[in-house]
Task: inverse folding
């Protein structure tokens, strides 16, 4: 598999919604 | 000029380097949700980074350990992971443990009275475990006092033969064991890192208002590997035994995090919500050989505002997961090759530098105060594009060796 690692996740808000079956990303979601 | 600005990041070089002191960000509050502070394990914000137990490894070592973690994930998914727990338990701990090294830490409370424990948070595994007294076989050095279940009024061992004990098989990938009718778990991370101990239940305190009775976890009696002064692991995968599943009645399997842009700042881990209104979602996919991983589908990559010409089959052949415990993103060979080529073309004004372990595209920024690098966007199923932050494009060893922070898998089907 390809793997999205944690360096590329920096400063993004990463959202895991297991019940709805989706993963989300928000740029600048940390500030 | 406008196109250049829209499709590139211009950075002060000093912003790429972590400072020696911690500059914490206030945790972003999400109403009625619980948020924990996230720190990089080897940065100045981590209490693990004090003294010998938490001494930061070199970047070369971090990347070698990262490669080891990736190999173990590939091995697990290809069904060739034939390392037996008994083998792992007899191996000495050595460099290259596949737990990885570039990990992030959160602090949770366990037991009654509550004891705070700094745990590596990991979306790529499921079982939460911590080192436990009396450390019957072996415990590594950790910063927090080692948890002692005999001093907690809420600890209970799980019995052998119970369905809970049986559930360890999927959460750890190992057959369970018994010791005097007490359920024994074992989890290993590919090569030498492992934890073996009693499977128990305990009171878990995330915050004073978010307390979970009967949280199932591993109470480690034989723990070896490079866990870097942490007290163990917080498993956030999709298996029923993960913290996410065990708290699903309250949080409905919804959590979010922000990893800090540098090891000298802090991020957050929130259960039950998220704070940004501009979240772009892509469907989760399930990897049949590893259903506890969070699968997603890459569909493309853009560099400097231009989408690269990469066949869809390159991504669909491989599949993809998102993992908080892997440091560097791994792409199918053809996708990485296209990314590298486009990135190099837009960086020709900068002198190159030697490769850093698995990172083969590096630059010497010694004579610059600011640099301009192309933006990189990742496309996912559902048509969303996610712009990677500038700090997620470059991996800085030193100013004379700053590298593109992506790598290729060796096999197109990995």
Result:
């Amino acid at each position: 598999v390809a793997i999205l690692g944690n360096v590329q996740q920096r400063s993004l808000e990463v959202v895991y919604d297991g019940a709805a079956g989706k993963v989300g990303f928000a740029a600048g979601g940390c500030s | 000029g406008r196109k250049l600005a829209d499709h590139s990041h211009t950075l002060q070089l000093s912003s790429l380097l972590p400072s020696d002191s911690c500059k914490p960000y206030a945790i972003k509050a999400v109403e009625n949700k619980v948020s924990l502070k996230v720190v990089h394990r080897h940065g100045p914000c981590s209490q693990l980074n004090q003294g010998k137990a938490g001494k930061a490894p070199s970047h070369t070592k971090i990347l070698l350990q990262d490669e080891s973690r990736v190999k173990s994930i590939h091995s697990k998914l290809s069904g060739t992971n034939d390392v037996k727990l008994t083998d792992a338990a007899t191996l000495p701990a050595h460099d290259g443990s596949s737990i990885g090294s570039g990990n992030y830490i959160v602090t949770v409370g366990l037991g009654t009275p509550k004891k705070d424990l700094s745990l590596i948070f990991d979306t790529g595994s499921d079982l939460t475990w911590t080192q436990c007294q009396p450390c019957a076989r072996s415990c590594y050095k950790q910063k927090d006092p080692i948890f002692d279940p005999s001093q907690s009024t809420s600890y209970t061992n799980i019995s052998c033969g119970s369905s809970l004990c049986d559930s360890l098989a999927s959460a750890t990938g190992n057959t369970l064991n018994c010791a005097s009718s007490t359920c024994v778990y074992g989890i290993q991370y590919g090569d030498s890192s492992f934890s073996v101990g009693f499977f128990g239940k305990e009171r878990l305190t995330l915050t004073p208002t978010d307390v979970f009775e009967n949280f199932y976890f591993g109470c480690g009696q034989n723990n070896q590997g490079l866990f870097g002064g942490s007290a163990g692991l917080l498993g956030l995968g999709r298996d029923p035994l993960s913290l996410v599943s065990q708290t699903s009645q309250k949080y409905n399997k919804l959590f979010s995090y922000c990893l800090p842009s540098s090891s000298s700042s802090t991020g957050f881990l929130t259960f039950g919500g998220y704070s940004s209104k501009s979240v772009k979602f892509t469907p989760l996919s399930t990897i049949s050989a590893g259903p506890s991983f969070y699968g997603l589908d890459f569909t493309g990559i853009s560099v400097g505002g231009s989408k690269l010409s990469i066949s869809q089959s390159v991504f669909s052949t491989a599949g993809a997961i998102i993992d908080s415990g892997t440091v560097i993103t791994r792409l199918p060979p053809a996708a990485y090759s296209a990314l590298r080529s486009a990135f190099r073309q837009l960086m020709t004004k900068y002198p190159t530098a030697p490769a850093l372990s698995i990172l083969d595209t590096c630059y010497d920024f010694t004579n610059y105060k600011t640099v301009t690098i192309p933006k990189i966007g990742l496309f996912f199923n559902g048509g969303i594009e996610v712009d990677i932050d500038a700090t997620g494009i470059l991996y800085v060893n030193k100013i004379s060796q700053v590298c593109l922070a992506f790598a290729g898998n060796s096999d197109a089907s990995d």
Remarks:
- The first helix of chain B runs from residue 2 to 6.
- The radius of gyration of chain B is 22 Å.
- Chain B touches chain A through 74 residues (CB under 8 Å).
